[in-house]
Hints:
Layout: H1 15-19, H2 23-28, H3 34-52, H4 57-60, H5 63-72, E1 79-83, H6 89-93, H7 132-145, E2 153-158, H8 165-175, E3 183-188, H9 199-210, H10 217-221, E4 224-230, H11 234-247, E5 251-256, H12 264-267, H13 298-312, E6 316-320, H14 330-335, E7 340-342, H15 347-359, E8 363-369, H16 370-373, H17 377-385, E9 392-396, H18 413-417, E10 424-426, H19 431-441, E11 448-451, E12 465-467, E13 470-475, E14 483-487, H20 492-503, E15 509-513, E16 516-518, H21 522-528, E17 533-541, H22 546-556, E18 563-568, H23 578-584, H24 589-601, E19 617-618
Parallel strand pairs: 1-2, 2-3, 3-5, 4-5, 6-7, 6-8, 8-9, 9-11, 10-11, 14-15, 14-17, 17-18
Antiparallel strand pairs: 10-16, 12-13, 12-19, 13-15
Amino acid sequence: MTNRIPPPRAGAVPPLLADVSGPQALRALPAGQLPELAAQIRSFLVERVCATGGHLGPNLGVVELTIALHRVFTSPRDAIIFDIGHQAYVHKLLTGRQKAFGPLRQAGGLSGYCSRAESRHDWVENSHASTALSYADGLAKARRLAGADGRAVVAVIGDGAMTGGMAWEALDNIAAAPDRPIVIVLNDNGRSYAPTTGALARHLARLRHTGPAGTNVFTGLGLDYIGPVDGHDIQALEDALRQARGLQRPVVVHAVTVKGKGYPPAESDEADCFHAIGVTDPATGHSTPRPQPAGRSWTSIFADELRTLAGERADLVAVTASMLRPTGLHLMAERFPGRVFDVGIAEQHAVTSAAGLALGGLHPVVAVYATFLGRAFDQVLMDVALHHLPVTFVLDRAGVTGPDGPSHHGMWDLSLLSVVPGMRVAAPRDAARLRELLREAVTVQGPSALRLPKATAGPDIGALVRMDGLDILHRTARRPLDVLLVAAGATAAAVLEAASALEGHGIGSTVVDPRWLIPVPPALTHLAARHRLVVTVEDNTRTGGFGSLLAQACTDIAHATPVHTLGLPAAFLPHGPRPALLAQAGLDADGITQSILHACAGLPHHSPAAPVTTGRRHEARRP
Length: 623
């Protein structure tokens, strides 16, 4: 059993780990060599993950557990499904991907999650929590129907993921079929990001300290239970897993692990045990300074403003689904602990609980990653919007996120929210607008949402004028107003660059930031009619996004101006740097310029449009 890792050796894969070319080679190793293998894996992980960034703490905690899994079960004949896939780095190393581990989470490199394209050992690409038990239930049913009961189905689920309701829906079905074997490995480290919350967390803590005496939540459902097992004792784990396999019925193996095991900076990190890190000095565990764009993250600006607002309004409360720090709610929680509710990885419950808070006369702010909002769409639609309740959703990591890949890009939220009656959605272009729009959102007497990208907020972009709620950011002087460029949120900077480039081609333009995208402001359709072409730019999928809404709005009032939509493709985008992925989608300044030049080439020539002079207006506040 290994407690501390040796100093990392830069460069080559450590020798014993290099000999493990796959699970078969692992099973051939003598048991006496396994502690050394575990130490080399930890050393390798610290060196490589600190160099690129990634999920370090969760993987340091599952080294011995993953070794035992691959020695007892024969992958991929036996299916090992991880919930969630960010704890599968050790699995990747033991299934032949050691040499490809260098560019982890970088363009062209290994995914930070399981990936079916990478290996036949990766069954699912789940990086949204609480799904593995449902996958396992269905796969076990399929194997029963195919007469392949001899092929084991194993679900490895963290205690944090067990706070999600979907896991319990699956358990309900698994326990109801005692003759259909599934091995459920509960990786219990007492945390998701922060310590796991709720009654289940207390129950697991009791089991960790008192053992399995009497009925527990699993045996009460009719499942067999083995444990608690020391998750860092390979022999004990192998014995428990072999016993579980031999039972030939649904069974929970309760493995107790330590997040960040063996790396003191991770073990002592109170925030999240190095759950996810950036580039880090492996010797000290301190972040390595890297050139960064000037400015603060959108999340930190939101966090400060919400804390300020909470001090002004006693009716403001906040809800998070196990994302207190990642979404910035920790600042409000530190000042007003009784007004911030972490419900665990339970987005559906979070939204409907927020609806209940609103029914009670409060104004909840639900901070959630944009990609995770899809898990609670029914609750947004039927539990919040149907009742026209004042709930504000702050969608962190909206648009392209970067290294976490297809499951984490927040590129569908506008399309989903566009069909919700009464929903208002804003997209701030800069820090000043974020503060302004958040304040407006929490005064809305109905559902509202703000989209925040995963990026650094650039310099504030002042408006020439505010007209009927629209911010006019640029207007070409002494040229025809050929193109109306509509910039959604943080695309404004690239759109302004494109407008400047178009002037060099003799194309005049107006750049407008609607601020509120949904519903489409009536003033925007009237402004569109005064231009030869409208081009919308958004970091949401083009399908059903803001551009589609504006085109429909123009059609509804019989405006003939064509609307050209620039946005993300209807595809699952890979992982990679955010700027590079935006450029590949044509959403950088050059891509926007080229798209507009192409679109303008197809327009019939006619007289210049009338100047924009109508509408109520006032000078916008300068940043």
